[in-house]
Amino acid sequence: MNKALSPAVIVAAEAPPKAKQSNYPEPFAARVAGRLKRPLGELFGLKNFGVNLTRLAPGAVSALRHAHSAQDEFIYILEGAPVLVSDAGETPLAPGMCAGFRAGSGDAHQLANRGNGEVLYLEIGDRSAGDRVVYPDDDLQAVLDASGQWVFLHKDGRPY
């Protein structure tokens, strides 16, 4: 049996970026312009968790402010000075700092790059089935379907 092997080692900054940078429906996708994700975990065939090397241009945000019901998230700042926006308020971050978001906590969060330089960080999250995401600032919710694809709905359940 002839299988293509995943790479054993790569230079993370040289990993190909995601072909589609956002799964959000419009008008929400435009709000994360300036974010570039390089999916590292997928290059190694990882199935239980994802790892992205993400770059935020000045003025960009990581995502709409959100909270997961079933998936844990972790971020580690490599470069730049983003602001963590969460239910607790705003916290300036710097290289070497990290933050974690426990599944089901309800703590909606995002990173915002309000500086003049770029921000680079690792984001790590598990791929728990049955995850739901709430976006408290927007008429949006997301459900992870059985095939592992995100389905976006209005808060009243109507599809986008």
Structural class, from secondary structure content? mainly beta
Radius of gyration over all CA atoms, rounded: 16 Å
Label the CATH architecture of the domain at 24-129. Answer: Sandwich
Distance between the termini: 43 Å
CATH class type of the domain at 24-129 = Mainly Beta
Q: Main beta sheet, described? A: 5 strands, antiparallel
What does the average pLDDT come to?
A: 94
Number of strands: 12
Strand order of the largest sheet: 1-2-9-4-7
Write out the CATH superfamily name of the domain at 24-129. Answer: Jelly Rolls
Topology:
Layout: E1 35-39, H1 40-43, E2 49-56, E3 67-68, E4 73-79, E5 83-86, E6 89-92, E7 98-101, E8 109-112, E9 119-126, E10 132-135, E11 140-144, E12 150-153
Antiparallel strand pairs: 1-2, 2-9, 3-10, 4-7, 4-9, 5-6, 5-8, 10-11, 11-12
Could you provide a short overview of the structure?
The chain has 160 residues and is mostly beta strands. The protein is built from one helix and twelve strands. It has a five-stranded antiparallel β-sheet with strand order 1-2-9-4-7.
